[in-house]
């Protein structure tokens, strides 16, 4: 579905990723692990196509839709969106009005992620966990072939985490490819494959102990 070959990336000349190779298969989950600063978020941006690699290539199967949940989403708070509006954006299609199915998908996800009672609240009025659950609902509202999620459960309590993991497992069962950055061993154990990024060069931390 999505293949990365010999990827390299630099910020203002400072190398972050070097010779990264991976393949996201249908009906499989791929975990991207590594310590802080190892380049997980950067890699996910390259895979999603929101940044371009300095070296190597990312190829996506023709027609494949990619849904990205970034790690940093603070900019969205500037918009006066309610929780429902934010989740609905995940189903927005420019050339048609929302269908009954669109509404049903949004309602079901809001219930499953326990944000239905927050429907009219603005994003900026939510707790970190409530806000993250809203953005996860927006991501899963999309009918995508590949879901790219950057530490989606880092701010969530145990119950919410399990709900998200159930959603992930269902999407995989339905044939989607999932690529998820995580520094939680238990969470990465859910994946079929793992790509482990090394610690940044300036760090003396042993990357093998730091997944
Ligand atoms: N916009 C940026 N400009 C310059 N350096 C950046 C930028 N974003 C990230 N970096 C640097 O790139 C490295 C990898 O960052 P990141 O991909 O966010 O790692 P991770 O997600 O694994 O914590 C870090 O050293 C970070 O400081
Ligand atoms: Mg990151």
Automatic annotation (TrEMBL):
Keywords: ATP-binding, Nucleotide-binding, Transport
Superkingdom of source: Bacteria
Residue stretches making up the ABC transporter domain: 2-211
Pfam families (alphabetical): ABC_tran
GO terms, molecular function: ATP binding; ATP hydrolysis activity
InterPro entries reported in the protein's UniProt record: AAA+_ATPase, ABC_transporter-like_ATP-bd, AztA-like, Metal_Ion_Import_ABC, P-loop_NTPase
SMART domains hit by this protein: AAA
PANTHER family for this protein: IRON TRANSPORT SYSTEM ATP-BINDING PROTEIN HI_0361-RELATED (PTHR42734:SF5), METAL TRANSPORT SYSTEM ATP-BINDING PROTEIN TM_0124-RELATED (PTHR42734)
Family named by the database record: Belongs to the ABC transporter superfamily.
Protein name per the record: Zinc/manganese transport system ATP-binding protein
Organism of this sequence: Actinoplanes derwentensis
């Amino acid at each position: 579905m999505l293949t990365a070959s010999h990827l390299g990336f630099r910020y203002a000349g400072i190398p972050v990723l070097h010779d990264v190779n991976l393949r996201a298969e249908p009906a499989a989950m791929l975990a991207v692990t590594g310590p802080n600063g190892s380049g997980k978020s950067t890699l996910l941006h390259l895979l999603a196509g929101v940044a371009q690699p300095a070296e190597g290539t990312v190829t996506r199967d023709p027609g494949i839709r990619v849904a990205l949940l970034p790690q940093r989403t603070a900019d969205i708070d500037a918009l006066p969106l309610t929780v429902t509006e934010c989740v609905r954006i995940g189903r927005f299609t420019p050339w048609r009005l929302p269908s009954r199915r669109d509404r049903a998908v949004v309602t079901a996800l809001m219930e499953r992620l326990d944000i239905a009672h927050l429907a009219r609240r603005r994003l900026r009025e939510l707790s970190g966990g409530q806000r993250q659950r809203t953005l996860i609902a927006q991501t899963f509202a999309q009918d995508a072939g590949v879901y790219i999620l950057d530490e989606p459960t880092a701010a969530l309590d145990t119950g919410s985490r399990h709900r998200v993991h159930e959603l992930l497992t269902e999407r995989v069962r339905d044939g989607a490819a999932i690529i998820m950055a995580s520094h939680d061993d238990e969470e990465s154990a859910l994946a079929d494959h793992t790509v482990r990024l090394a610690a940044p060069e300036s760090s003396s931390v042993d990357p093998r102990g730091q997944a």
